[in-house]
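ligand=flavin mononucleotide
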Amino acid sequence: MRYSRLLEFRPAKAGRDELSLDTKVPSRERDPDKSGKDLVQPTMVASIPINRDWHTINRRKLMSVSETIKARRSIRAYQNKSLSGELVDKLSEALLWAPSAGNLQSRKFYFVYNNTIKQALAQATHGQNFILQAPLVIVGCADIAKVEPRYGLRGTSLFALQDVAASIQNLMLVAQENGLGTVWIGAFDEDRAAKALKLPNYLRPVIIVPVGYSAQKPMAPPRVSQQEAIEIIE
Ligand SMILES: Cc1cc2nc3c(=O)[nH]c(=O)nc-3n(C[C@H](O)[C@H](O)[C@H](O)COP(=O)(O)O)c2cc1C
């Protein structure tokens, strides 16, 4: 496969894997005018008091994380309505702030608005043409070149995929929180998707996620019981 030729991958730059918090905070959050107005730091987030007022901030009913997790459904029909830049920014932040192995962030995301490329991606998904309805289609890729120097095979075959998955789950929950629908598409031809995006050979496309306003309200598919899923060891 195209991304298995590890010897061809370019080596990681020295020090790139030890990024400081400052280098990872997007510039618009770095308080350019020193007013502190838009500055978002993890400590400030952690200091928000968790009480009932939390649910009515901005006079809008906010869902808790647990409620959002349960309310999210796979959406396979979308309204013909575009996404605001503000929403896309929130989705991007959700991707960035997911955990990753060694904080290498061995992942890359393509935000596809282009209809021709969407068509090519739809063909790669064996005819899951509903993705064409979504205003935005995100392709999550594992970055083999970032992970391989430090973690070898475990990194390339597991960590980079988990890095992408953690980001995508974050994104899906933030999408749900903001009234958007998504679906995790794993059934696709990777080579065709890579070709559609002209990916370099160190990026492996592992997930496609259409994002948009839902045009359906699916019932929740059942889950197995806690007893079946969880083994308690005391
Ligand atoms: C790894 C993975 C691959 C999936 N692939 C597809 C897919 O190719 N097409 C699709 O419509 N849904 C796909 N799904 C979505 C599942 O069908 C869906 O999450 C499951 O039925 C539960 O429904 P819910 O998401 O509404 O809770 C995938 C989900 C996961 C986690």
